[in-house]
Amino acid sequence: MSGVDLVTVTIDERELRVPKGSGMVEAALAAGIEIPVFCYEPRLGPPVGACRMCLCEVEGIPKPQAACTLTAQDGMVLRTAATSALAKDGQEAVLEFILLNHPLDCPDCDKGGECPLQDLTFRYGPGSTRMHFSKRTFDKPIPISPLIALDRERCILCYRCTRFSEGVSEDGQLVALERGADSFIATFEDEPYRAHFSGNVVELCPVGALTSTAYRFKARPWEIQNVPTVCGQCPVGCNTWISTREGKVVRILSRNHPEVDEGWICDKGRFAYGHLDAEDRISEPLRRIRRHGFEPVTFAEAAQETARALRAAGSSVAVAFSGTETVEEAEAMARIAREALGSDRAILPDDPHPALDAWRAPLSAIRNAEVCLVLGDHPVIERAPAVDLWLRSARRAGAEIITVGPTGSVQTLPGSAPAVAAELASGSVPEELREASRRLRKATRVALVWSEDDPTGGRPIAALASALRLGDGSGVYWIPSTPNGRGVAAAWHAAGAGRETTPPPPEAELGALIVSGDRAAADPVVLALAERADFVLTSAMFMSQVAGWSHILWPGSAYLERAGTTVNLEGRPQRQHPAVGGPEFHELALLAAIGAHLGLAVDAWPSFESSDEHAPLPARGKAVPVPVTPTPMPAGSEEGLALVTYESLFSGLSVERTPTLAFQLTEAEVELARADALAGGISTGDTVVVSSNGSATELRARINQRLKTGVVRIPADHAHGLGQRVEVRKP
Questions:
Q1: Tens digits of residue pLDDT in 244-258
Q2: 355 to 142, 393, 461, 465, 478: CA distances (angstroms)
Q3: What pairs with residue 148 in β-bridges?
Q4: Which one of 162, 312, 324, 340 has the fewest beta carbons within 10 angstroms of its own beta carbon?
Q5: What total of structural domains would you count in the chain?
Q6: Structural domain that includes position 343
Q7: pLDDT value at 609 more than 60
Q8: Lowest mean pLDDT: which of 55-59, 164-168, 485-489, 604-608?
Q9: Would you say 517 and 556 are in contact if contact means Cβ atoms under 8 Å apart?
Q10: Integer Cα distance of 167 and 44 in angstroms
Q11: CA 164, 169, 173: angle at the middle one, nearest 5?
C-alpha cells in the first residue's frame, strides 16, 4: 500500500495494519470478524449510528460505542460481542428494544428467510423477552406507491430508505416524520413515491417494512431460483439476479457490480417483466396466407421458406436491427446478409465512432472526476439512469457538473451538442462557454458524457477528447439509444471485412427485409421498407404494422429468456443467462437453420461460455487524433417554438404490459419555459393545443424552470406528426 498511511489497531485480540481513517466495520471484516449492523450501508454516505446494533467496547472509553461511526486510529483496541461482555449486553439490549413493538409475524412476512433482523436476533439476541404487553399496530399495508407497500409496525427506523432518497437518488420523496417514539417513514405530503430508482428502498430495508407489491406473497426464499444476468432495458448493463418460481419471473434484484451500477437498478430494470406473460404475445411461428392473415408454420418450414426467399433476393436484402439483440444474434444476421448474400444494407440504431475506445473508462470513474461535461438534448436519467446516479455522486464529491442543452446549466437550442463540442475543441468559444472551456482544460480528471442522437456515432465528443488530450484519469461516455447498440454495430462490422455499410434504398424495390425485434418493428422507416419489400421476415414479441406486412413472423424472445453477450455503453462485454424458457426455438436457432440452407458453416456459429462474476472492462484502444469538424450552431427562428423530444425511460412494450409499473408511463404533457408560458397565459396543469405541419394534439402544460426560452419539450410518445417548430396555445 505505497503512499497509504497505515495504523495499527487491535480487534478481538488480533492486531491489524489498516489505512488510517478507514471504518472499523470494514477493518474488522477484512480480518474475518463480523460486526453486525442494520443502519450502516457504505453506499449511502457517512454513517449515522442510528440502530446501535454495532455496539463494541473500545479500550479507554467506559461506554459501548457504535463501531460504524469509528475510524481506525493508531493504537485503538476494540472488542466485539464475541470477546466483550459489555458489547454483548449492549447488542442484546438493542435487539430487545427493536423487538419491543416489532411483530413476530415471520411466517407471514415476505422478508422471512432472508431477513437480517431475523438472522441477527437468532445470533445475537437475548433468546427471550421480558415484555408481556400488547405491541403497537398500524393500518397495513400503506401504499407508498403502486410498486411499494409499507408495514409501519415492522420499521426499525434505520433510515436507510430516507438516506437513499435524500443522498443517492436525490428525489427527496421519502421522509421521516415526527420525533422519538412517534417517528415514522412517509412520502412527502403523502404523494406516491414516483421516481426512477424507488424500488431500491425495498432491497435496502433490513426488515419487512418496505416490500414489493409485485413480489408480495408470491414466493419464499427456499422456493425460488436466482439466475445471474445483465439487464437489457438500457445501455448501462446493470448486473442483476432474476428470481424465478415454477418457470415464472417473480422479482429482479441488483447484483452489485461496483464499476457499473454499485448495486442500484432503476425501476424499469427491476419491475418491467410483466410482458413475458402478456396475453397478446406472439407464441408460435406464423406464415402470411393473405394480405392480413396468418397461419401457424413449423420451424423447418419457416427456415426453408425464408432461406429460399433470401436466396432469390440476393444482394437486394436489408437488415433492420433493434439494438436489443445479443452479439451472437447480430453476428448471425450479419453473416447471412454480408457473407452469404453479399449485401451491406442495414439500419443500425447506434454506430459508435472507433476513436471512442481510446478513452474507455469504467462508469465508476465519473465519481472521481473534477469536471463532468454532459452534452446532448436527451436527459441522461431517461437514457441511462445509472449514469445520472454517478454524476450526482461526482457532484457530492466536489466535481463541477456542466450540462449543455435545452435544460442545461448552459442553455442551448436543440441539436447544438455537435457545435458546442466543436467550439470547445477548437478553443474558440462564445462568452457563455468560456468558463466551461477553462475548467475543462485545467482539470486532470474529466468525464465527458454524450447523450445525443448523432449519425457520426459520437465523433464530436471524440474530437473534443482528442483536443483536450485526456489522460488516464478521464473517460468518455457515449450513451447509445439502445441497450446493445455497441455490440450490434461491432458484430455487423466484423462480418463485413472492411466494407462500408449502406442504408436501404429510400424508394426502390427491396428483395427482402429482415426485421429484428420490436423496436425496429415500430420504426416508421422500417415500415416504409416493409411495404415495398418482396419478402419480410420479422422477429418480434408483439404484433405491429410491420408484423402485418411480414411473410414469416417469428416469436421473439426477451433478454430474460436467452443466452448471449451484450456490450454496454462503456464497451464492456457481459453475459446474459436465461432465467425462463421463452419460445421453443429462439432467434439464434432459426438464424442457424437459415444459414445452413444458405451454405454457411453452422458449426462456426458463436458458442456460449460461462462468464466471470463481474465482467472486466477491456483495455483502452489506441489513441487516434480526431480532427475537429466545424459545425454551425442551430439558428433560432421568430416563428414558433423549437421542439425537443426524448424517449422516456418508462415507455415501451415492457412498461405498458406491466400493470404495477404502468403508473410511471410518461404523461401526455408539454414542458414550456416560464417566459413562454407567461406570454401565452398558460399555467401548469392547463390543457393546451400543440400544432405543427398541419398536425395538432392536446397536451397538459407544465412549466419547467430550467428550460431555455423559445424551446418546448415533449416525450417522443406524444410528439407524433409534429415538426421542429411548433405553436402552443390554449384551446
A1: 999 999 999 999 999
A2: 52, 27, 10, 10, 11
A3: 145, 212
A4: 312
A5: 4
A6: 302-349+485-558+589-596
A7: no
A8: 604-608
A9: yes
A10: 7
A11: 75
